[in-house]
Amino acid sequence: MCRKSEVTDLKQQLRQLAGSRAPDADDQRRDVFKRVISCMTAGIDVSAAFGEMVLCSATSDVVLKKMCYLYVGVHARNHPDLALLTINFLQRDCRDQDPTIRGLALRSLCSLRVPNLVEYLVAPLATGLKDPSAYVRMIAAVGAAKLYHIAATSCLDAELPAALKALMLSDPDAQVVANCLNALQEIWTLEAANSEEAAREIETLYSKPVVFYLLNKIKEFSEWAQCLVLELASKFLPSDNNEIFDIMNLLEDRLQHANGAVVLATIKVFLHLTMSMTDVHQQVYERIKAPLLTLVGAGSPEQSYSVLCHLHLLVMRAPMLFSSDYKRFYCQFSDPSYVKKLKLEMLTAIANESNTYEIVTELCEYAGNVDVPIARESIRAVGKIALQQYDVNAIVDRLLQFLEMDKDYVTAETLVLVKDLLRKYPQWSHDCIAVVGNISSKNIQEPKGKAALIWMLGEYSQDMHDAPYILESLVENWEEEHSPEVRLHLLTAVMKCFFKRPPETQMALGATLAAGLSDTHQDVHDRALFYYRLLQYDPAVAERVVNPPKQAVSVFADTQSSEIKDRIFDEFNSLSVVYQKPSYMFTGKEHRGPFEYSEDLSNLTVGAETSEKVISAQRYQENDNDLLLSTSDKEDIGTAASNGSASTYNAPSDLISPSLLSSQTPSETSLINPGGPTYSSQSNFSLDDLLGLGVPEAPAAPPAPALTLNSKPVLDPGTFQKKWGQLTLSLSQECSLSPQGAASLMNPQSLIRHMQSNYIQCIASGGQPPNYKFFFYAQKDGATAFFLVECIVNTASAKAQIKIKADDGTAAEAFSALFQSALSKFGLS
């Protein structure tokens, strides 16, 4: 390990070796260079030896050159003033006879990333793109993209993108072609937000001549380059079915490739090209099954997990695809936990009438697994299969056997599943209750298991002889139960039991409500108060609310919407599939394209800079998750954020006496008196109708007024930014585009021009296929009121999410209708 005190000695040795012509001078330089690199790696500042290192670089030894370039690349970024010393020798090395040295020097020159030295990069890059060595041309192609990030104007003025395009279509070396393609995609995608010409250039990349040219050379590319070309092919829009079959024939052998990334990228091309051909699409599923199963069984656990994630996504769309191959998803002893968990999800997804018995038998073996999380997942998997109505009789018997295993986590998970099964299959209540009634609540430690048991005690208290007494003992130990979930279930269960067996439960109900009203948890307190007031108002109403007639639950809610699943499918062969969420939910704002994928425009440059950076702290707070919320959900969130804390109520002192149902103070009675309050919102009508209080229907909303827009609105970026931060959200809606409109978005400028023809102006835009984002504005004719719009378009699903903020909120509905009408006509004319 190098010490700081040695830096001076190293500097002195380098100075002595700088002009040495001794036969072993290069060997001595190597030793000293290695020590300098070692010190640098250890975090010691060796920038003091910068000049001496540059002097010693005058050698033909490639190893010395590499170490010197590494040193220069690290310290040039931290010490831009010293970087100027390296220009001369790097430019000289760019003209060396050895192509390896030329390439290394050019790479180091582009890696300096010092804006003041941009003028020295252009000429070597232009020369490098024409170099006779493929290695140098490959480095130059990547260097052009680096130059664009340092100084975009210099890169474009030197016409490097045009040179890259010509090189991509003519160079005989496959790696040079791939690097040119990657650089062009990066440059043109970023430039498309500001240049219509760049948008047209992107379209040429997705054109038939370019795509077929690259696909015909695909066997020559490296694995990384093949994935790059295949990703390009997945965005190609064929003009007829013959082109689709031509591409599939070209890529048929890629399905047998040893690299999993190439196979998945090929599958993505097949799936996306055949989306509109139902029969062929189904055949594609059959064709890709064997390669995917091969990848699952071969390679590392990490690869198996990634492939299983993609398999799971496909099974969600075609459940019968792998139903006959269920044994391939049995857990192996050597599988890590994350692979086992995913295999259990696969077994659950592919279960059907023909294989349920075998799958459930296998899952029951896992219930006794020493890996507790896997044991839990296996029990849940059995319950999910039962909820799918496959072989319910045998599965219920298996679940009830789990209750005899005398393991706390097994009992807890099983009770939760039994509760769900009884909600869907009430006819099994007698068999289940006979077993559950023998379980002591004292032996259940997990809150969710205890809550499930309490739910069954309340729901089926008429069939369980000891139910009131078990609930009473639980109420007596209220203070020892710290879980709000258990307390909430206990409140409801005691209420249900009271209406079924009142004499045995009245004292327990009083004690429960008293404990709930004095509880420090807000939800528990509020529910107890709600039940208390219901009972005071009318016990018959309370019974209808708390203990309505049982109705079997036909379908349990899915945790993911179909829209989210479609978005994940659009991002096949990416981390979105592994994370099971669209990319915008987990990527940083700086990686979402040339714009910030956020409601806040404070970091989005849409034109001239503005000095006004202060935005009101009371503005409506939003984030990317709002894409998943309805308008009413967002209004609820906004309302909750603006309200103060709830009032605190004291528990009445007469709860355990017959005066439980006595009169109430007028102020409290008015809260439940149907004739007292004035109902002013739709939500109030809905709630009161749910309680059966006979509230009249809400009046219909008045029709939206007609709206005319100013044909020449004027709004500068600074004002737009300020307004967007200060205005609250007026509307959030989803609408559809025509297929022609989605296809036309290959050139986003066409949508901007179309909306301008409807007097709606665009102030900022960006993105890349399949997601584009636009900020529009319009002005009400004859008024100063503006409408601001964020429009996020997904070309794969032909859907658009629009969010509108308006100075005049009463006209938001009318403007939304006008905006959607204009959007629906895009691409049709």
TrEMBL record:
The keyword Protein transport applies. GO terms for cellular component: clathrin adaptor complex; endomembrane system. Residues 657-678 are annotated as: Disordered. Keywords: Membrane, Protein transport, Transport. Residues 664-678 have a biased composition (Polar residues). Residues 707-824 form the Beta-adaptin appendage C-terminal subdomain domain. Its main location: membrane. It is found in: Endomembrane system. The keyword Oxidoreductase does not apply. Pfam families: Adaptin_N (PF01602), B2-adapt-app_C (PF09066). SMART domains: B2-adapt-app_C. GO terms for biological process: intracellular protein transport; vesicle-mediated transport. Belongs to the adaptor complexes large subunit family. Adaptor protein complexes are heterotetramers composed of two large adaptins (beta-type subunit and alpha-type or delta-type or epsilon-type or gamma-type subunit), a medium adaptin (mu-type subunit) and a small adaptin (sigma-type subunit). Subunit of clathrin-associated adaptor protein complex that plays a role in protein sorting in the late-Golgi/trans-Golgi network (TGN) and/or endosomes. The AP complexes mediate both the recruitment of clathrin to membranes and the recognition of sorting signals within the cytosolic tails of transmembrane cargo molecules. This is Beta-adaptin-like protein. The lineage of its organism: Eukaryota, Viridiplantae, Streptophyta, Embryophyta, Tracheophyta.
